From TrEMBL:
Keywords: FAD, Flavoprotein
Organism ancestry: Bacteria, Pseudomonadati, Pseudomonadota, Betaproteobacteria, Burkholderiales
Gene3D superfamilies: 3.30.465.10, 3.30.70.2190, 3.30.70.2740, Uridine Diphospho-n-acetylenolpyruvylglucosamine Reductase, domain 2, Vanillyl-alcohol Oxidase, Chain A, domain 4
One Gene Ontology term from the biological process aspect of the record: respiratory electron transport chain
Organism from which the protein derives: Undibacterium oligocarboniphilum
Segments forming domain FAD-binding PCMH-type: 37-218
Entry keyword Cytoplasm: no
Entry keyword Flavoprotein: yes
Family designation: Belongs to the FAD-binding oxidoreductase/transferase type 4 family.
Origin superkingdom: Bacteria
Record's protein name: FAD-binding oxidoreductase
Pfam families (UniProt xref): FAD-oxidase_C, FAD_binding_4
Record-linked PANTHER family: BLL6224 PROTEIN (PTHR43716:SF2), D-2-HYDROXYGLUTARATE DEHYDROGENASE, MITOCHONDRIAL (PTHR43716)
Length: 470
């Protein structure tokens, strides 16, 4: 039987209009959103239910057709697009957008994999609850993609990443069976925690089709402050003071270098510098409280006063409204777009122990400037949980294309430094194809062997997102 037979059988499952084969329409599914690379697909298939996903997977097994699960296609490591062989199908889950259940008393929401993150956030908010996963791409990324990559974001400090927000999964396994694991239980000690095999696996073990997620009481008040500091050491001091003084109300702690802020102001001229004088670093700090706005603001102002008295703060701006708070967050959330507008750059999504962040920045900055004079370091990210986006832009008046030829050497310096500090070269973006070879330098042979054993056991024909992660 031929690939034509395969596609015809797929059309019988989903309907003919949901099996896309024409070149122009396929481009959306074959290209990653930054348009840096493009693969080649046999087809893009858009199932509308879990049962249809299972039937398509069984057909892929029968015909030995590789498949690439795809959600919002907002990833940064090329994990949701096919290779260049043209043998794989892209399995888009974007039609599966049903909120299946909202259990207020159990504080859970069950959503299909194609639901946008913003859709789930809004459904929770409409019920007076909070789903706290928060990403810049929340208007386009999907729940399935969030879980497949174990997404992080800006609220990990308080609520954890996607893995910690998930209680149960529905998964189509590599052989086309459906695992109905949508339990809304906080405690279930009955053997291996299977859901955690699939979370963060980037679709290489099975396809997440729905998830039961944790909700939280919506906070009554929130306060946002942008603080100006001299060094990352001062930022670490502020973080520890904030944890001790604010406790669980501290929800966000983002480190921003002055160069990041200058890029944003250059490429987003509608935004304004919040301070009269620049500082080497800034921290965007946010708290969420179940007390009154006045109570929350009072605690935050007390903290700032104490830190100012100890000469840890150079200046601070406290948002007096939600609009002002969003303006401050815009300075943080537009860094990646500003860097892209500045030119081609080399990205690193790294994590080191929070206590090591100041030393990592100081030592790695010095190494890069020694070897690549004039390179511009775009350092920002989730300092509260140890995750930095440590990106490198070309020196001014240097071609981005020429600079990218140094990528392997720059990666080696940065990743070796991360390893030296007992960190990770991928904190929240995953491995995809971009880092699957690089990770072999840093994971032990035992770790790799365990991962390969799991992959071979669950996907013996290597049809589930082949060439990714391993």
């Amino acid at each position: 039987m031929s690939k034509t037979d395969f596609l015809n059988l797929c059309r019988q499952v989903t309907g003919a209009d949901q099996v896309i084969t024409d070149t122009d329409s396929l481009q959306t599914y074959e290209s990653e959103w930054r348009q840096r690379i493009r693969g080649k697909a046999l087809a893009a298939i858009r199932p509308g239910s879990t049962d249809e996903v299972a039937q398509i997977v069984r057909l892929c097994q029968q015909f030995r057709v590789p498949l690439v699960p795809q959600g919002g296609n907002t990833g940064l490591v090329y994990g949701s697009i096919p290779d260049h062989q043209g043998n794989a199908v892209v399995l888009s889950l974007k039609r599966m957008q049903t909120i299946r259940e909202l259990d207020i008393d159990n504080e859970t929401i069950t959503a299909e994999a194609g639901c946008l993150l913003a859709q789930v956030q809004q459904a929770a908010a409409d019920a007076g609850k909070l789903y706290p996963l928060s990403l810049a791409s929340e208007g386009s990324c999907t729940i399935g993609g969030n879980l497949s990559t174990n997404a992080g974001g800006t609220a990990v400090l308080r609520y954890g990443n996607a893995r910690e927000l998930c209680l149960g999964l529905e998964v189509v396994t590599a052989n086309g069976d459906i695992w109905h694991g949508l339990k809304g239980l906080r405690k279930d000690n009955t053997g291996y925690d299977l859901k955690n095999l699939y979370i963060g696996a980037e679709g290489t073990l099975g396809i997440i089709t729905a998830a039961t997620l944790k909700l939280f009481p919506a906070p009554r008040a929130s306060c946002t402050v942008l603080a100006a500091l001299a060094t990352p050491d001062a930022a670490l001091h502020l973080l520890n003071a904030a944890k001790n003084y604010l406790g669980p109300t501290l929800t966000g702690f983002e480190l921003i270098s002055d160069f990041c802020l200058q890029l944003v102001l250059r490429h987003f001229p509608q935004l304004r510098h919040p301070f009269r004088q620049t500082a080497p670093y800034y921290v965007l700090l946010e708290i969420a409280s179940h007390e009154s706005q006045e109570h929350a603001a009072g605690f935050l102002l007390d903290l700032l006063e104490k830190e100012s008295d100890q000469n840890q703060l150079q200046d601070a701006v406290v948002a007096e409204s939600r609009r002002q708070a969003q303006t401050l967050w815009n300075l943080r959330e537009n860094i990646s777009m500003a860097q892209a507008a500045e030119g081609k750059n080399i990205k690193h999504d790294i994590a080191v122990p929070v206590s090591s962040i100041p030393a990592f920045i100081a030592e790695t900055n010095a190494l890069l400037h020694r070897h690549f004079s004039g390179c511009r370091i775009v350092c920002f990210g989730h300092m509260g949980d140890g995750n930095l986006h440590y990106n490198i832009s070309a020196p001014e008046h240097t071609s981005g294309e020429i600079f990218l030829k140094q990528q392997a050497l720059i990666n080696r310096i940065v990743h070796d430094q991360v390893h030296r500090f007992n960190g990770s070269i991928s904190a929240e973006h995953g491995l995809g194809t971009l880092k699957k070879e690089e990770i072999r330098r840093y994971k032990s042979a035992i770790e790799l062997n365990l991962m390969e054993t799991i992959k071979a056991a669950l996907d013996p024909h290597n049809l589930m997102n082949p060439g990714k992660v391993l």
